[in-house]
Amino acid sequence: MKKGKAVRTLGSKWIKTKVLQKSKSLRSYVPETKLFSHSSLLTMLQKHKMVYVKPTNGSAGHGVIRAELKKQDGSILYQYQSGMKKRTFHTFNQFFISMNQTKLKRTYLIQQGIHLLQKDKRPFDVRIMVQRTSGSPWKVTGVIGRLAHPKKIVTNYHSQGKPLSLGLLLSPYLQGSKKQTYKATLQKLGVRIAKHYQKTYPGFREIGVDIGIGPNLHPWVLEVNTSPDPFIFNQLKNKKMFRTVLKYAKANGRFR
Ligand SMILES: Nc1ncnc2c1ncn2[C@@H]1O[C@H](COP(=O)(O)OP(=O)(O)O)[C@@H](O)[C@H]1O
Ligand SMILES: [Mg+2]
Predict the structure, then answer these.
(1) Residue range 139-191, pLDDT digits in tens
(2) Among 54, 57, 172, 222, which residue's beta carbon has the most beta carbons within 10 A?
């Protein structure tokens, strides 16, 4: 039997990252990722200065931690934030012990942190919904921006993030046809990712790609959801996208 046959969803962020990294052309969109350990955390912090530490099988932003290595007045500080709790330490070991107590009792991974574009000093990211049915090809059915709660480091709706039109969020950075072209690039990236996964997992019908946009506008794939929430699209005034997303989801047997 072919590997992964008929599997429709996949929880492990680690496996999903490994599959994405197999693609030469998609690799440049994937932040560096390691399994969590004392030594990998230190190495990743020294290299990237800011990392995200996430439960391998998490969702809704639960248990996600942002960790940073900072230099202040010639000394090194280690800092982390989880929820609204922020803590700073002078030694890596103290920092590590405290962070381990904050982590959920689950396996975690560490991902290169992306300094996301912001609005009103709040980071935002992008959710691209790509769906197909047994009778139709992959299609981008929804695109939405998600703005983090003012005091949080995650943008998830279920962690008090605010779903907003992507066009509005991108306006300070891109205008007119440049903005349209950029949005089209993100959509194409979504379809490329869906097609890539389908090679290993032919049963996939829906993916929700979380894309973080870095300061130079490079898109980074933060996460690929295989059971993406259609209802965030119901937060927009214009219900057109929501109707399409829901139509596909229902055709795929969700929400009967
Ligand atoms: N590498 C990263 N750099 C910057 N922000 C990140 C990174 N990883 C996650 N985030 C933020 O945390 C949120 C939740 O992380 P994600 O990997 O999507 O897990 P979940 O399954 O909980 O949604 C993202 O939507 C984004 O706002
Ligand atoms: Mg997510």
Answers:
(1) 999 999 999 999 999 999 999 999 999 999 999 999 999 999 999 999 999 99
(2) 54
CB of 44 closer than 8 Å to CB of 241: no
Tell me the CA–centroid distance for residue 101 and ligand 2, in Å: 23
**Amino acid at position 139, single letter:** K
Any atom of ligand 1 within 6 Å of the Cβ of 212: yes
Question: Which strands make up the sheet holding 75-82, listed edge to edge?
Answer: 33-35, 108-112, 50-55, 65-72, 75-82, 85-89
Coil, strand, or helix at residue 112? Answer: strand
Q: Count the Cβ atoms, other than its own, within 10 Å of residue 155.
A: 26
Q: Does the beta carbon of 44 sit less than 6 angstroms from any atom of ligand 1?
A: no
3-class SS of residue 68: strand
102-130: string of b/e by CB count within 10 Å (b at 16+)?
ebeeeebbbbbbbebbebeebbbbbbbbb
